[in-house]
Amino acid sequence: MRPDSKLWSRVYILSPLLGYVLGIDCYKCYSFNGMDVKCEDTFETDVSTEHLIKRDCFYGYFRGNYCIKLRGKRKDGSTILVRDCSDNDWGRHCGDITFEFANGKEDIDGCLETCDYDGCNSGNKLITNRHVIWIVSLLIGIILRL
């Protein structure tokens, strides 16, 4: 067997696992005027908010690659907080943001944050994703031993 074909056979064997590694789990909830206390900041990443995690989060018909958090005020003065997933990296910015939803869109004065690892749209800023590090380390170890 040629050395490069051995590498491709390794990739072929591991390719079914990529779907598990490439999907993202995001917190998904909406709170208008503080109505959903579990969604509001201060946000606890414990058993009480576990039901808000969406495994393999989808944004429309597309698998989400990013988590988002939008916090701000609507034109009528009420507050809005959205935790969801997205198929695009929207970056980080504050100011006027157009929020699109099923029934239309509205302008929000607030901040939008995008991140790219499981559960990163919680209220905590410094979260390390130990599971991803562990899986990647395991896969590298398997590839090197084949």
Relevant terms:
146 residues; alpha+beta; CD59; five-stranded antiparallel beta sheet; two-stranded antiparallel sheet; 34% strand; glycoprotein; Protein quiver; QVR-like; signal
What is the element layout, followed by pairings?
Elements: H1 3-14, H2 18-22, E1 26-27, E2 29-32, E3 53-54, E4 58-59, E5 62-63, E6 66-73, E7 79-86, E8 93-101, E9 104-115, H3 130-145
Antiparallel strand pairs: 1-3, 2-7, 4-5, 6-7, 6-9, 8-9
Keywords: Glycoprotein, Signal
Pfam families: QVR (PF17064)
InterPro entries: QVR-like
Walk me through what this model shows.
The protein is an alpha+beta fold and 146 residues long. It has one domain: CD59 (Ribbon). Helices cover 23% and strands 34% of the residues. The protein has three helices and nine strands, in the order H-H-E-E-E-E-E-E-E-E-E-H. The chain has a five-stranded antiparallel beta sheet with strand order 2-7-6-9-8, with no helix packed on it. Strands 1-3 form a two-stranded antiparallel sheet. A hairpin with a 2-residue loop joins strand 4 and strand 5. The protein is elongated and about 60 Å long. The two termini are 13 Å apart. About 8% of the residues have low confidence. This is Protein quiver. Pfam families: QVR.
How would you sum up this structure in a few lines?
23% of the residues lie in helices and 34% in strands.
Please count the helical segments. Answer: 3
Instruction: Please state how the strands of the largest beta sheet are arranged side by side.
Output: 2-7-6-9-8
CATH level-1 class: Mainly Beta
Can you tell me the residue ranges where pLDDT is under 50 for at least 5 consecutive residues?
A: 15-21, 124-128
CATH topology title: CD59
**Share of helix among residues?**
10-25%
